Amino acid sequence: EVQLVESGGSLVRPGGSLRLSCAASGFTFDDYGMSWVRQVPGKGLEWVSSVNWNGGSTRHADSVKGRFTISRDNAKNSVYLQMNSLRAEDTAFYHCTRDRGIAATGVFDFWGQGTLVTVSA
Amino acid sequence: DIQMTQSPSSLSASVGDTVTITCRASQTIASFLNWYLQKPGKAPKLLIYAASTLQSGVPSRFSGSRFGTDFTLTISSLQPEDFATYFCQQSYSIPRTFGGGTKVEIK
């Protein structure tokens, strides 16, 4: 059974940093691209970042470019999101997702439950 | 960025009804259109990808189609477990973008 379990969300002050982690199991991790998608509670979905199977290709939304960095460790079956210079508008649930295929295809076939990041003074 | 306009934003229906949700892309996305279902407090779940391909395990009452830059999700014979919010999403280009969602409620 595919499982994606996020951790690392918390309350942080504007300008602060957080590192989100996603532990994957139930599939061959390095056969898939991975992504992060966020959702303000009760609102819509926003793609944040994607990484291909070996970490050699990463993409980020303009709203987080230069502040967030996605990475992965295939030896640990994990994907990460380093979040710096956090702003109030970054407050959301952050979902780890699996992409269909080795590349970051943008088809998110499995999702984690999400971890809540709250940016507030 | 490609804008995805989803309609209606909400609808009321009864068990057994056929429901259609529409998603329009602001430019061509070929058939790179995906549909997700989300229940309250749960993570989204992939229903359909590439406009009309059913994800493994998804019931056949769900179907998708494409008409140029217009896409539809049809749910035939609505079941109690189908009352949820549905999102479309394009995977044609970066940034990936989602529609605003359609909440399907019980009439």
Note down, in words, how this protein is organized.
- The complex is a heterodimer of chains A (121) and B (107).
- With 121 residues, chain A is an all-beta fold.
- Helix content of chain A is 0%, strand content 50%.
- Chain A contains no helices and eleven strands.
- Chain A has strands at 3-7, 11-12, 18-25, 34-39, 45-51, 58-60, 68-73, 78-83, 92-99, 108-111, 115-119.
- In chain A, the strands form two sheets. In chain A, strands 2, 4, 5, 6, 9, 10 and 11 form a seven-stranded mixed beta sheet that branches. Chain A has a four-stranded antiparallel beta sheet with strand order 1-3-8-7, with no helix packed on it.
- In chain A, strand 4 and strand 5 (45-51) form a beta hairpin.
- Chain A starts with a strand and ends with a strand.
- The model of chain A has no long low-confidence stretch (mean pLDDT 96).
- Chain B is mainly β.
- Helix content of chain B is 0%, strand content 50%.
- Chain B has strands spanning 4-7, 10-13, 19-25, 33-38, 45-49, 53-54, 62-67, 70-75, 85-90, 97-98, 102-106.
- In chain B, strands 2, 4, 5, 6, 9, 10 and 11 form a seven-stranded mixed beta sheet that branches. In chain B, strands 1-3-8-7 form a four-stranded antiparallel beta sheet, with no helix packed on it.
